[in-house]
């Protein structure tokens, strides 16, 4: 009986990649967001659609706050999410696909204020009078994660739900700048020309690869391999490059 139980448990935990996948996401233009006609569009949406088509899979999207998306990956309530940065903490509950694009996180400040914000590294923030905004649940690189453990550094960080709130906080002079994905901020400025009162500070924050994350509670390495093969195909046939150029 013990042997039968163990085999059954393994089958439930590491079932083969299902034909229909529940994909968790948080609206994050230009990577995934709803258009004016309420259609889900974006760079990551197009890439995942191409991967799914190549792997003969269908996708069901489930929009939740980002922290809840990560929670559902842990519990297996969703199969995967897209547009994810790698971290050791996330690797405990998720498999990572091959990288399919890169991201760059920058510090954005009010136009004309770069010279007034004189820090040259993130560690300088704890000794300054500045306060920077971040979006709750997002990853800003290993240096930020390590510094965030320090109370003095954390006192200079203000966490909100999303980019739009950080923009308003900066416009209302409640923070001195905020950390954001460069492509996301550039897209936001294009869509909100009147709010284009920002500039990118030269302080380097974080740059790294981006992955699809699959729930370890749902999938084995076999599932990851199937996704990876599909990613490799769209890289080799030029489809991935076409999608990336379309959203530049």
How would you describe the overall organization of this protein?
The chain is an alpha/beta fold and 248 residues long. It folds into 2 domains: 18-102 and 208-246, D-Maltodextrin-Binding Protein, domain 2 (3-Layer(aba) Sandwich), CATH 3.40.190.10; 103-207, Periplasmic binding protein-like II (D-Maltodextrin-Binding Protein, domain 2, 3-Layer(aba) Sandwich). Helix content is 37%, strand content 26%. It is built from 10 helices and 11 strands. It has helices at 2-13, 43-54, 66-75, 88-91, 142-147, 151-154, 163-171, 182-191, 221-236, 239-246; strands at 20-25, 33-34, 40-41, 58-63, 80-84, 94-96, 101-110, 132-135, 157-160, 177-181, 198-215. Strands 1, 4, 5, 6, 7, 8, 9, 10 and 11 form a 9-stranded mixed β-sheet that branches. Strands 2-3 form a two-stranded antiparallel sheet. A hairpin with a 5-residue loop joins strand 2 and strand 3 (40-41). Helix 2 (43-54) packs across helix 9 (221-236). The longest helix is centred in the C-terminal third of the chain and has 16 residues, at 221-236. The radius of gyration is 20 Å and the shape is globular.
